[in-house]
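Re: Re: ligand-bound prediction request (bumping)

Still looking for help on this. To restate: I need the protein modeled with adenosine-5'-diphosphate bound, output as structure tokens. Inputs repeated here so nobody has to scroll up.
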Amino acid sequence: MNPRLVFWVPAVLRLGLVAGAAGIVWWMAGAVTALAFALVIVVTLLVVQLNYLHKLGEWLNDPKSGKLPDGWGAWTDVFARLYRLRRDDERNRDDLTEWLARFRQAMHLLPEGVAIMDDVLFLEWCNPAAERHLGLTLERDKGRRVTNLIRHPEFIDYVILGRYEQPLTLAIRGRKLVVQVIPFENRRQILVTHDATESDRIEAMRRDFIANASHELRTPLTVVVGFLEIALADPGLDAETRTAHLKLMTEQAQRMQRLIEDMLTLSRLESDEYPLKRERVDVHKLVEQVANDARALSNGRHQIEFEVDGPDLMGSAEELRSAFGNLATNAVRYTPAGGTIRLAWRRGPDDLRFEACDTGIGIDEQHISRLTERFYRVDKSRSRETQGTGLGLAIVKHVLLRHGGKLSIRSTPGKGSVFTASLPNTSLQG
Ligand code: ADP
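Reply:
Sorry for the wait, this slipped through. Here it is.
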């Protein structure tokens, strides 16, 4: 129904009723009594209206303080509508609060830094990632000019020139940051920061890896190609030289094969497509096989002992064999003839560990932290002579990482080394 009618019809009816009642009083008791009667009713109505007006005023001063009265006459509708408005308002406020909390949480978790500035670059808000990236503290720096907080000439040029189409790369506090300003809402700008240090490091590692791998493959390939050219140029080569060349070519081809196999193993270990397949590993059998392989490689030049004093564990037998095998063969390869190699599987204070202990050439302290890097070798020629690819310890490290373990190395140059593959005791089951 038309709201005007809803308001006016009852009001007019009510006034009509008063007038009708006054008319009846007039007829029964005369004009003066009727006027007095009408006056009393009108004054009563006025007092009622004023009372509701007062209540409304009080409520408007502090809407949360109390409940709205039910009201009378037109007030019923006014209060009902106000009540609905308040309920909708509360609901909207709750929704907004919830959204704000979600937004805050999302901003807290965001790895990218976000800072909001006004049109003259005064900081209004920023998330924890932006605090970390830019060395800001929201509480302290709010309301300060961003160019005073990030005193980096390139950044200052960037914001002053306003060339925001392109992001800017900055080196801030030893990290590589990519920052970009995005204007919004006319009078505000967002500063987004991305920490590219890690992705840069990975990219550099990839580049190095490709360069190293190509270099490693090029040497044996050059040898093979060289001999093939000799054979082509001189078909009458005597049988002895020919056999010697073929032998050398085979060695180089095998070296390439080992390299490619190790590279493939590494890439499999790093790939998400090959998740760790855990099975019960018979460690006694595994260590025995590893010791036998080491003996075969040593060919009687070393004394090789093994001891199994720990339980079986859950893990990938194939990967663990490759890791333990690499440690055992390294012990053989870097121990002069006559040395002793001890392989052991035992319980540590809170882990299970495979130890490969040798009385070999040892390693200088300065190299130890870098040994698990791909292609890192202390002595290149010794590594190659003993058929090393430079990837063995990188494979060990990855296998252990996949099993939640780690590699530790103790060594004394000239005396020997102990390589310890430590695996969490939790991998033990049954
Ligand atoms: P490589 O194929 O060259 O042996 P690894 O990754 O297995 O590659 O080992 C990296 C380097 O660590 C080796 O080149 C060698 O210098 C050193 N190393 C590994 N094991 C031993 C060991 N038991 N004794 C001395 N040096 C070792």
